Amino acid sequence: MGTTQLDTVPEPKYWHLKTVLSEALDSEFSVGEILPNERDLAARFGVARATLRQALEQLELEGRLQRRRGVGTTVAPPRMGVAVGSEQHTWPGAVGDAWQLADCTLAVPPSAVAKALETEPDEQVHIVRRSRVTHGQPVAAELLYIPAASVPDLSGIDAPSGAARARAVLRELQHLGLEGQDRSVELGSARADDAKELDRLPGAPVLVVTTRFVAEGGTAAVSVATYRADTCRLTFGDSGGVEIHHDPERRAS
């Protein structure tokens, strides 16, 4: 067979630069060290700043670099393992839940969430906002969407919003018999509010985990959790048994 058109396409200049930069990070810089500014780096490697910027963005996406507001670009520590769910299906807020409650409001959810919940386009739902901290570092922010039909006995709760309201909503949700969960993971960009909560710049790469909770034959709640892609290695199941390291000499366990 002849070569395909893709076989003849040269490697992009920024991709080669990414490899060179990665080797420099390993040999010349330590974790947390601030990199020189883009002008100096571009001059050192003899490339245009646009090419350098593409390489830096790719290294950030791979978790090698972090862009910190007011600090600059620093060498990132190895990704930390963050368990996402377990083989034992449980409601949010159950014993052992690693999330911290922040707030709860009534509002109309995004259209995609409303469709998943099978609510009317203008129907308000409970939106519980939670955050997750690992080793003292914010790693994720979550919006949990719960329709009124899933928590019908909230009439006696006086708090209209806040953490107290959030606790009440999750407590009522656990009265349902959880039948199952399904999850999807996709790469995304941090929105302004998520970026602020996660100490990231808007547009920074994030991992978005969407979880649908099923009870009584329908969708009882939907969680949209945004994880820092530069620091998190998501693990699934009770063992969290797959680890991926930068060092090619180390194997997945």
TrEMBL record:
Pfam families given in the database record: GntR, UTRA
UniProt cross-references to InterPro entries, sorted A to Z: Bact_HTH_transcr_reg, Chorismate_lyase_/UTRA_dom_sf, Tscrpt_reg_HTH_GntR, UTRA, WH-like_DNA-bd_sf, WH_DNA-bd_sf
Keyword vocabulary terms for this entry: DNA-binding, Transcription, Transcription regulation
Top-level division of the source organism's lineage: Bacteria
Signal peptide segment: none
This protein's name: GntR family transcriptional regulator
Domain HTH gntR-type span(s) in chain numbering: 11-78
SUPFAM superfamilies to which the protein is assigned, alphabetical: Chorismate lyase-like, Winged helix' DNA-binding domain
